[in-house]
Design brief:
With 464 residues, this protein is an alpha/beta fold. The chain has helices at 36-48, 71-76, 89-94, 112-125, 140-145, 154-174, 231-240, 251-267, 289-300, 305-316, 338-345, 355-362, 375-389, 403-418, 431-436, 447-453, 458-462, and strands at residues 6-12, 53-57, 100-106, 130-135, 181-184, 189-191, 199-202, 207-210, 223-226, 243-246, 276-285, 370-373, 393-397. The protein is built from 17 helices and 13 strands. The radius of gyration is 22 Å and the shape is globular. Mean pLDDT is 92; it is low at 458-464.
Amino acid sequence: MPREFRLNAFTMNTVGHLAPGLWTHPRDRSRDYRRLRHWADLARTLEGGLFDAIFIADVMGVYDVLNASRDASLRNAIQLPINDPLQVIPAMALVTDHLGFGVTGSVSYEHPYPFARRFSTLDHLTEGRAAWNVVTSYLDSGARAIGQPGLAAHDERYDYAEDYLDVCYKLWEGSWDDDAVVADVVAGVFTDPARVHAIHHRGPHFTVDGIHLSEPSPQRTPVIFQAGASSRGRRFAGRHAEAVFVSAPTEAIVKGYVDSIRAGAVEAGRRPDDVQIYSMHTVVLGESDVEAARKYADYRRHVREDGALALLAGWTGLDLSRYAPDEPLRHVKTNAGQSAVEAFSSSDPARLWTIRELAEWTSIGARGPVSVGSPATVADALEQWAEATGVDGFNLGAVVIPETFEDAAALLVPELQRRGRFKTRYRDGTLREKLFGRGARLPVSHPGTAAGASVKPIGAAAAG
């Protein structure tokens, strides 16, 4: 029996996410990102298509690496202006019952104590449908904007993230007992003080003394996503991630990521299937291959390749204006997204990319592949990609919003269902239960459960 795919819609609370210039297309509605109705309508579309989740990216800082200027990003709306992704989720949760919500949140610019409360709040308001995409950030401009001298070294950012997650796990998993809220109207006691415990964290980066401010949410810890594909990022994912988002232009590179992440999970004492892996993919659909090709050609008339280079320069930390258009991208170790440099320079020796080719490739689809065709053609492509790489599903990027997602829900999903590749109904329960078919809480093999168990009762901590 064929394995069912997972599908997320990949988007951002901005105008120009991953298709520079497509905001000018007459059918694009991405400029409505400031309106709750836009997000509510999108959520209804995705739930109608039985998507597992909407995965909302985020970035702190601006893409100012190309020509050492932010001008290309401002002209082309390259993830700028951008709004807070968390604030649109309640509107989507209100009009849906099953759709999950993956939200990107950086560990680099906010203390974990207030951050943990915000995600508990989100998990409460969505009734257990929240996921956190843990990132360490890659734009030097973001670090400078909040008063730091610059972005910390790449691997140091992951060391920082380890300490950050330890704090969050202790707050989410260990501060409040399951039965701490008694709501005893007769006795006039809402919370039993003996069942609430302070955490006393002393880590390399954070010191935290206090109780979590939120009562336990349905999942306690949100589903943990991670999207770093560097060597250090894959080790981090092997230990912490329940779902990993990878993005690369060839099957060979993605397969290498998948094998490494699953091996890392085993090394961390987890099972390979404790981690679901999603690959970035963009689909352009039509009733026929001819119609889809015509649609794709129409889209390409709106692309802005200088905007694509601004994106890629930000991801890699390389000012691509210093290269000649037909010069191959060389592997240079930078402090930005190392996997982005590797994906287009050294990870697949069979493919050398010139700057001109990179601009064309990333203008639609970003770092992942684009499949164009009828539902059958695109489904064939997804099956081939999954077979060759071992991924569990796909984060589907958008070209024109909401058209790309409407087409996927109306055309692609029925074809995948016909092949036994996609569910025909949602499973009940929280997002973790829907994705893994097990309990709402973290599994015992996850390090977050051990961190929660390490929290001492208030009296015990004082006693030493």
